[in-house]
Amino acid sequence: MKIFQPSWVHHDEKSIFSIDIHPSGERFATGGQGCDSGRVVIWNMAPVLNEQAEANKSVPRILCQMDNHLACVNCVRWSGNGLMLASGGDDKLVMIWKKTISGSGGIGAFGGGGKSVEHWRCISTLRGHAGDVLDLAWSPQDRWMASCSVDNTIIIWDAQQFPKIVHVLKGHTGLVKGVTWDPVGKFIASQSDDRSLKVWKTTDWSCFKTITEPFEECGGTTHILRLSWSPDGQYLVSAHAMNGGGPTAQIIERDGWKCDKDFVGHRKAVTCVRFHNSILKRSAPKTNKLQQYCCLAVGARDKSLSIWLTALQRPLVVIHDLFQDSILDLSWSCDGYTLLACSGDGHIACLQFTAQELGTPLSEEDKNILYQRMYGKNANIDLTAQAEKEMIVENSDFLNVLKSNPVPPTLISQQQPLLGVKKDEPPQTVAQMPMGIQSSSLTTPTPILKQIETKTADGKRRITPMFIPLNDDNGIASNAANIPTSIEFGSKSSETMIPVETKQLASEEPNIPLTAEPTSKLDNRLKRIATAPPQKAEPLAVTEQTAGSSSKQPASNQKLVDRTRSTTYSTGKATVIQGNSFKAFGEVRVQVQNNSVKTAYGTLGRVVGLVVNAQRMERKIWETVVGSPVVCFAVGAKCAIVCSQDHSIRIVDIKTGTPVFPVLSLTSPAIQSVFSSNSKLAAVVTESGILRIWNVVEKSVLLSTNCAEIMSGSFVTILHVSDQGMPFIVLSNGSSYSYCRKLDSWMLINSSDPVIRHGLIGNKANAPVRNIKAYPLSTIQSYGNFSGPKTNSFAEIHSASWQTSAAIAFIENQIKICEMITSPAELKYWYSMLGFQLALNGSEEKIRQVLDDLLGASHSLDTRMGDDNDPSVLGISKHVFMEDVLNHLKMQTKWQRIYTEYLDQLKFLKERDGRDKPLME
Predict the structure, then answer these.
(1) Could you give the 3-state DSSP secondary structure of residue 473?
(2) What's the Rg (C-alpha) of the chain?
(3) In this structure, what is the dihedral angle of CA atoms 811, 814, 818, 824, given to the nearest 10 degrees?
(4) What pLDDT score was predicted for residue 698?
(5) How far apart, in whole angstroms, are the C-alpha atoms of residue 578 and residue 395?
């Protein structure tokens, strides 16, 4: 241990009544008397701790001096985040200081000696006390600040909205000389000259406990009584107490508020105690077992200082006659090894310890575990959410809240009503589900397709796998190009091709056809393959099959069946389709065979249209030839799009083979082609990143843009186009985007961005949804291959202070994306998720902002609301979203007043508009 007494830290030989180290440890503040006023000085810590810095004249000692108080300053305290400094004095005022780039408030502004190195400005003057302010304390998380005075009161100030007063604590009958917060956030304690210590509840600011016995013999002999709460919340240590006629520092245990222990040894009254900011640990000297304990500094009128560890019966250090007058204040640095003390003689002392002497501070993670075990709380305490069980329930809707746990909203639960499936009906297969391109009424259910079996010459049986698109929404026509290559099943008409991993899975149940249930009951084998990231696609293995099998193809009643051999775009380059490949829509198949006709001009490829009748017999209905090998193609309800290696693109009628457009050409060959689910839009993306979307019905271009600006060395692995013409792409690096024509920009859907990663993992209440029609945003985001943190559990996903703001920012961005891509089901889900997060972790200001927006500008008390008076979004009333948010607020008692306030406004609007629908579902 080292002791320094820097003589240059002084207030012109006047008393220093208070000292406090900044959370960064780089500066400290002192408060006391000035020449003709109260004085606050901010000092540089470096010259105190470092002899070289002290000797270096270029290193400033005083950073700023503020002489704004009209009388002596009794207390200075930094906020927990270090952004603000509070000072209270004999002028009955509390001043809040904040650092600015430049401005008044320093020595230069008041004519002192020298120029300010830093500029600290008084941003708020708190007037409320009728007498001298003696002590100050910031609450955990800087939610509130408490000040106590000789007017016998403690004022709780709203630190988010200075100078707003939250409450005035009245009950002491003498001067209140000290105040401290429980680190768990449940209590605040005060000590007074009326020979009592009071503990107040922060839930309703009532007096919870009054302790008088240890103080009955005390006289009013100290200027201040700075008490302190241990960082583990277990011990409250008072300043001046008496035991057997001798002065002590009383230990009050949280468990039963017992007062049977105290710190003894000082010859005169204890004036101040200050716990080390951290819980400490070290190995016990004899047993070598790990000890966890707290450290406390005690100062007294006898000019001596003692350091105590709760793990020891005797003090660790006692320093006698440290000053010429009483010790008036103490402060530990956040690193835990520096202690500053100040005295009425106008000097300060600095004590430096080592880790061997004091121990090692617990990490935030260990502290969190300790808090969870002891109090069921996180170390990052939300004071507004504490002790809800003790809150008075004012609204009958909240009577059962304490018996239930908040449940996050789920997207899948909304799926059945959207698909039009009644609860009493049995689940339908893909073949039975109504399609988006025809009437949804089906008179007779379509039978499930049987598997296709053939036998080779040696008698072995081969099964042709059927392609079931994972992003098919159980009744909405899709296209094979919408699916990443890693989850396509495909075959040529003359051969069977089974991926290696599919063979293994299929061998377990060889006689079960690969047909799919609705999305929520997807075949387990397909689920496993679907989770593979797009860029890890494997080329499909090929096995020969006996000739003539093409005549045994089934008559498909599904709207989309794909037999195309999957091409792996491992480099993002167009690859020529090998052999015989086809894709089908309904009863029509389009078959492609490259290099099938040799002429004097070169080799041609054949594109053939076939119809499969009820007897499973094929009939050719048209045929055309192309002069360049086909690299990709897609089939819709009325047209097919065929893309060749020479950059050409052909769109032909699926029934006749006649061209719908003239042959088009882009700057590079297409690597992806796709139709929208209603088959009215066709899209391609090329090697160089050019994206085109055409309206086939109107024979016009809908969108022409370039993906190159977002590709950054990657390439497109998935392309999908919604019926509204909104393109979605997934890149090989896992990022995904959608293009907004209104904004003429790409919208980021998924990436390695930490906020998006945290948002997707933290809000994933159920398995990934693969339903591109009903839930395009969730489906596209499910193809990202970014992993989350390896150590954190789901319960810890919102424990850190940054995670709440990150989660809300993510959800609000999801809402904006849903508005742009026209996804009403997901919009409703994310508004509900916003309500869930706000109810758990939100602030009152944010909740009011969201509810005011949903209530509508014309009904809001906030006149700064925008001009957006549209009462609905995507055809859904904003009041529907508001009901979802209120339903989640209803699960937290702390929001009952906001809930009641806005529910009343919503009911008024309902009655005024004459709606008869039930308000809260």
Answers:
(1) coil
(2) 37
(3) -30
(4) 93
(5) 70
Nearest Cα to Cα of residue 454 among 579, 593, 553 = 553
Write out pLDDT tens, residues 901-911.
888 888 888 78
- What's the whole-number mean pLDDT along residues 670-687? 93
d(CA 93, CA 38): 11
Distance separating alpha carbons of residues 487 and 344, to the nearest angstrom:
78
Count of alpha carbons within 13 angstroms of residue 80, beta-carbon side: 15
> 3-class SS at 563?
coil
Within 766-877, where are the H helices? 776-781, 801-821, 824-841, 844-855
Question: Which DSSP letter does residue 22 get?
Answer: -
- Helix intervals (H) in 698-753: 708-711
Tell me the two tokens of residue 107: 């020595």
Mean pLDDT of the chain: 78
Q: Which two tokens stand for residue 473?
A: 């929404």
Q: How many helices (H) and strands (E) does the chain have?
A: 16, 54
Evaluate if residue 389 carries a pLDDT over 70. Answer: no
Residue 280: beta bridge partners?
293, 361
Three-class secondary structure of residue 811 per DSSP: helix
8 A C-beta contact, residue 575 and residue 567: yes
Consecutive H or E run containing 417: helix 415-419
SS (H, E, C) 284-340: CCCCCCEEEECEEEEEECCCCEEEEECCCCCCCEEECCCCCCCEEEEEECCCCCEEE
Phi, psi (deg, nearest 5) at residue 809: -60, -40
Q: Give the distance, in angstroms, between the CA of residue 600 and the centroid of all CA atoms in the same chain.
A: 65
What percent of the chain stands above pLDDT 90?
A: 43
pLDDT digits (tens, 9 = 90+) for 5-27: 999 999 988 999 999 999 999 99
**Does the pLDDT value for residue 59 go beyond 70?**
yes
How far is Cα 51 from Cα 790, in angstroms, rounded to an integer?
45
| Cα→Cα distances 292→66, 231, 358, 815, 848, Å | 41, 12, 11, 47, 43
Which one has a higher pLDDT value, 81 or 461? 81
Give me the DSSP letters along 612-642: E-TTS-EEEEEEEEESS-EEEEEE-SSEEEE
β-bridge pairing 280-283 and 327-332 = unpaired
CA pair distance 407, 804, nearest whole angstrom: 17
Q: What is the pTM of this model?
A: 0.49
In sequence order, what are the beta bridge partners of 30? 19, 41
Query: Which H helix or E strand runs over 418?
Result: helix 415-419
166 exposed, middle or buried (CB, 10 Å; 0-12, 13-18, 19+)? Answer: middle
**pLDDT tens digit string along 232-241?**
999 999 988 8
Tell which residue, 693, 844, 830, 840, has the closest CA to residue 763.
830
Cα separation, 528 vs 515, whole angstroms: 15
